Amino acid sequence: MLQAVLTQALDKAERSQPGIGFRMMVWGAGLWVSYQKRRRYRYTVGTLGALDDRTLHDIGLHRSEIESYASRGDADRFPNRFKGHQHFPRG
Q1: What gap in Å lies between CA 61 and CA 74, rounded to an integer?
Q2: How far apart are CA 62 and CA 1, in angstroms?
């Protein structure tokens, strides 16, 4: 009786854990996402680095900001700039 209960418990435990194939798929998907992010970063740095200073100024970037913009984007460049302001005030 005890052996049957332990066998059933072990069977349930083995079935509840993902198999090696699933774990390898998740690992591979993580590697692919990291690869895509790295390529996007390098492409952005290369593209913005090829622009002249005047064009960078026109789009609101300084040459020293290219790498941080490529890695983090525009979200945290000016966190308090529009805080408390209405973007489209009503007449």
Answers
A1: 10
A2: 75
What does the pLDDT look like over 25-62, one tens digit per residue?
A: 999 999 999 999 999 999 999 999 999 999 999 988 99
Burial class of residue 50 (count of CB atoms within 10 Å of its CB; 0-12, 13-18, 19+): exposed
**Which residues, other chains included, contact 45 with Cβ-Cβ below 8 Å and sequence gap of 6+?**
66, 67, 70
Tokens of 68: 């941080």
Indicate whether this model's pTM tops 0.70: no
Residues 6+ apart with CB under 8 A from 71: 41
Q: How many residues does the chain have?
A: 91
Distance separating alpha carbons of residues 33 and 85, to the nearest angstrom:
37
46 touches 67 (CB < 8 A): no
Run of H or E residues at 17: none
